[in-house]
Design goal:
Blueprint (H helix, E strand, L loop, with lengths): L1 H20 L3 H24 L6 H17 L6 H23 L4 H21 L1 H4 L11 E2 L2 E2 L2
Antiparallel strand pairs: 1-2
Helix pairs in contact: 3-4
Amino acid sequence: MRFDLLFGAIAFCAVAGVPFFIPWATVMLTIALGVGLAVLGVVVLLRAGQISFGHGLYYAAGAYTVAFLVQARLGLDTLLLLPAGALVASVIAVAFGFFAVRYRDIFFAMINLAVSMVAFSLLEKLYSITGGGDGLNVARPTLAGLKLG
């Protein structure tokens, strides 16, 4: 148990330090995180036998929350704003999951897809707030006062 925790902490520090020492690796890490997000859907499929098209909605909710907080210029590091994004995404997931968990098989997949498409359409139509398909322009993220990227 202790070895696993120590190994996890060392691996986390190694990955978190990559952008400081190897700037071009940031693109690869970003792609890896995107692929990891896609893998979450496969994990839900394999573990629960359910097809989820909705996890992108929670990712978007968290990302937009952090982006809005960064634009508010609160003076906080991006690292401190990430839990707020996770909290908003979790609240939305729990609220939606309360209803979606009652469905099985194709109905679960269809309700996930429907809610995700409604959210996508809202994000596209509310261009003045969300930036539509172009997204939001935010300042470069900071970590302990250092600008990343």
